[in-house]
Amino acid sequence: MAKLNRIKEVLIEQKRTGKWLAENLGKDMATVSRWCNNHTQPSIENLDRIASLLDVDIRKLLHKTK
Fold first, then answer.
1. What are the tens digits of pLDDT across the range 23-36?
2. Which end of the chain has the least Cβ crowding within 10 Å, N or C?
């Protein structure tokens, strides 16, 4: 599966954990883990919430295509 998001990388850059993200989003840790490992992708709404929590531009959470 193609790596579409950079959630895991941004969490590492900010010294945050998937557990922290799951707790702050009110999501199950397994869901966040699937996002971080690119097994599934968060909805646009969840991606926006993640960007807000991490205080980054939403584009930083996505791999560039070109």
1. 999 999 999 999 99
2. C
Using DSSP, state whether 26 is helix, strand or coil: coil
- What pLDDT, on the 0 to 100 scale, is given for residue 2? 80
For the four alpha carbons of 24, 56, 65 and 47, in that order, the dihedral sign comes to positive
At residue 51, φ and ψ (nearest 5 deg) are: -60, -40
Question: Domain containing 50: what range?
Answer: 7-61
Residue 30 structure tokens: 């397994």
Rounded Cα–Cα distance for residues 55 and 52 (Å): 5
Ramachandran angles phi, psi of 64, nearest 5°: -70, 145
pTM here is 0.92
Position 1 pLDDT exceeds 80: no
